[in-house]
Amino acid sequence: MQRLKLVLLIGVFILGFVFRLYRFDSPIADWHSWRQADTSAVSRNFVSNGFDLLHPQFDDLSNVPSGMDNPEGYRFVEFPIYNFFQGFFFKSFGTFTLEEWGRLVSISASMLSSLFLFLIVKRRFGASAAFLSLVFFLFLPFNIYFSRTILPDPSMVMAILGGIYFFGLWLDQNEKSNKKWLYFTVSLIFTSVSFLLKPYALFFTLPMIYMSFEKFGLSFLKKWQLWIFGIISVIPLILWRTWMLQFPEGIPSSNWLFNEGNIRFKGAFFYWLFGERIAKLILGYFGLPLLLLGFLRLHLRKDLLFLLSFIGASLIYMVVLARGNIQHDYYQILIIPSICILLGVGSAFLTRPIKEANRYVYYSVFLICTIFSIMFSWYYVRDFFNINNPSIIVAGEAVDRLTPKDAKIIANYNGDTSFLYQTKRKGWASFQKGLPEMVQMGAQYLVLVNPTDKDLGIGTEYKIVEATDQYVIFNLLEKP
Q1: Cys staple from 169: which of 54, 116, 183, 327, with CB 3.0 to 4.6 Å?
Q2: Which structural domain, as residue segments, surrounds residue 197?
């Protein structure tokens, strides 16, 4: 029986990995391509210019992200751990494209996340709940898509889950155990890395705080080991954030993420986060009963509080970064583990009914909710994989073919850098100023996609390099 369970577990892992290879070779022009392009551009610059982790650069020279001109193309957001691995694997092994290596890094992180989630849930709620939590994490369409995107978020989720898991192991060891400080150190490393990848991981230290309280009571506040853990884990983040301040032109504005438009707790806040995102995109509506049933099996108070620490962390995160969570659905990557734990615990309640006579009813409810949840979610998420404007791919290839490698390009796409990324050039993703002024700033070529007659009229002032119905390229340094 144990061997059968192991085979089933391995099979689920393999299938989860295979599902994440869907459209593995697609260009960065799908959903949230803007943020993916910016991330991958940092990695590409590492490959081209050297792995200077303290001076990450991308392709956008405009003032759109920070409000300041950025002639060096600095990109100071998360510490570029993810970008290092993406660029390092590409440069060391080749085989796949840079973008494919980026997806492999995210997929690998997602698979590790699923393992940590399984182990965390198993320690608290048993093997059944752990396995079902794993299944939902691996096969929810929303999570399948975002766990193969070129973003640091899947790696951040992996790191904080690893931190939580090893933190629990550390607390469970007796003082004489040889593994005690090993677990402490591993948890500290994972936690520190999660903060560097995205500081939002700070919210998910709440389960660690609860476990400390559960172990020591209020005296946990007096434990020097916990103070050491907390201080050392945030020092790298503080150092990185302090270093960033020297390059304000490379720091995207972020104040809007909190409550721009005063949207927190308004009707739109609840509609977008709980209705549109969680109920519709993530759970496909039919997952809601399983989510609610997650509370019914929590007959032990300590289990309830442990789960509430995850839920509380998710809610606090969404409330504090209200506008960011509403604006971007990839911000919900961080709350997926909490949702999957609830789904797993609720499903375990149904698959192990209290009354044996009702087991087929319970099984039927579980299967119907699970199957329809995934079907409906896939219906809404499937378009995320689509390339909505193939012209930017074709135009980017043309620019790469027809212009010098060091040329600076205006790839106008209303500020969206996913078009500029396709050109493999530095430049601007919008008309920051008039064309004469931008030429003075260093712009050498202009490329437009799906050109109109008005766009082609620019050819009266600047030489057309090549024009098709999908794009037109102008040489801004030559007259017609």
Answers
A1: 183
A2: 2-23+106-384
What's the pLDDT tens digit per position in 295-340? 776 655 567 889 999 999 999 999 999 999 999 999 999 999 999 9
**Residue range 145-158, pLDDT digits in tens:** 999 999 999 999 99
Rounded Cα gap, residues 473 and 462, in angstroms: 10
Q: Phi and psi (nearest 5°) for 174?
A: -80, 165
User: Hunting for tokens 């940092």 — which residue is that?
Assistant: 42
Cβ 133 vs Cβ 117: under 8 Å: yes
- Evaluate the CA torsion angle 10, 12, 15, 21 in order and state its sign: negative
Residues 293 and 428 in one domain: no
* Assigned token pair, 323: 């506008």
Last residue of a domain, one of 334, 365, 384: 384
Does any domain span residue 125? yes
Would you give the DSSP letter of residue 8?
Answer: H
The model carries a pTM of: 0.95
What's the rounded Cα separation, in Å, for the pair 442 and 315?
46
- What string of DSSP letters covers 191-253? HHHHHHH-GGGGGGGHHHHHHHHHHHGGGGGG-HHHHHHHHHHHHHHHHHHHHHTT-GGGS--
- In degrees and rounded to multiples of 5, residue 57 shows phi and psi of -130, 150
> Do 356 and 411 belong together in one domain?
no
SS3 of 381, please?
helix
The whole-angstrom separation of Cα 50 and Cα 206 is: 38
Residue ending a domain, among 360, 384, 408, is 384
Question: Distance (Å, rounded) from C-alpha 129 to C-alpha 106?
Answer: 25
**CA torsion angle for 240, 246, 251, 257 (degrees, to 10)?**
70
Looking at the structure, tell me whether residues 413 and 356 fall in a common domain.
no
Q: CB of 435 within 8 A of CB of 446?
A: yes
Same domain, 396 and 371: no
Q: How far apart are CA 165 and CA 188, in angstroms?
A: 11
Q: From CA 421, how far away is CA 424, in angstroms rounded?
A: 6
Per DSSP, the three-state class of 408 is strand
